[in-house]
Amino acid sequence: MTVVPINIRSQFANDEKRIDSTWSINQFKSKMEFITGIPPEKQQLALIHENTTATPLNDDNRTLQSYNLTPYSTIKITNVDGEMDFGQYSDKIALGMSDEQYQTRQDTVLAYKREHHIGRFATSDIRQQKEQMIIDQSNKLAAQISLNQRCMVDERIGTVAYIGTVEEIGPGSWIGVAFDNPVGKNNGSIKGHQYFECPPNHGSFVRPDRLSFQLPEPTSNDLDEI
């Protein structure tokens, strides 16, 4: 996992978060829903560079690192339907008060988020519904994948060696990949449970949406070595 600290900016968030740069844009949007309160399909992302230029992150299947994400980059998340109108609700800066005073007021943006279960105030029911969506999506995609298929994960080429649940790392379907080279995380086992066989550092477990089956064509040099 390539963990990178980034800054999240939205109407509801202004935070530093540590994220996995190998996440797809779609995965990132799903995780940001609980922080921003914006459904994934309504999120519009832009990577803000030091020179203030913005790069749209508009390909849900690409990974964050494919956009040259660097530590402490800023990702701005906006709602395609426009910002919400808070009416009489005010933020802490506008009110000019301490954290303690702000927490107790009922006419603040914080109170609005709490009342409407936005961001970190999302209820357990909402979180469970979101988790079920992830499970359903992973199961649906996994059903379209076959053992021994050649595949690629973030430019790492390998073979599908396992399809199914991996209770040690989370619900839903996972794909065990045996890579051609030692670019993985394990030997096909998790916490002593052997799911498939491969040499050390040749195996990884990923969600089905991380896989690509469009492998690069062999180069002339590759053919010379056959």
Automatic annotation (TrEMBL):
Record's GO cellular component terms: cell cortex; microtubule plus-end; nucleus
SMART domains: CAP_GLY
GO terms, molecular function: alpha-tubulin binding; microtubule plus-end binding
Boundaries of every CAP-Gly domain copy: 165-207
Ubiquitin-like domain: residues covered: 4-77
Pfam families: CAP_GLY (PF01302), Ubiquitin_2 (PF14560)
Keywords: Chaperone, Cytoplasm
Localization per Swiss-Prot or TrEMBL: Cytoplasm
GO biological process, one term: cytoplasmic microtubule organization
Keyword Magnesium: no
Entry's family note: Belongs to the TBCB family.
Name of the protein this chain belongs to: CAP-Gly domain-containing protein
